[in-house]
Amino acid sequence: MKHFEYRLLDTVSGFFSGIDYQELTNHLNALGREGWEVVSVVDTIFTSHQTRGLLVTLKREVLA
What we know:
Layout: E1 3-10, H1 21-33, E2 37-47, E3 50-62
Antiparallel strand pairs: 1-3, 2-3
């Protein structure tokens, strides 16, 4: 049976400070090279018809 580990990226706190799409793309590409795959993206702060934050869920298979 396959086993997975998960990781969350929040563009509002931590590594990011707001949404910089180039920075996010670069970071996701680096994580993809480590085996991470994006499985979900949810807007976390939505004001005045604009997304101000994203919560990105990633997973990768854990090899035993």
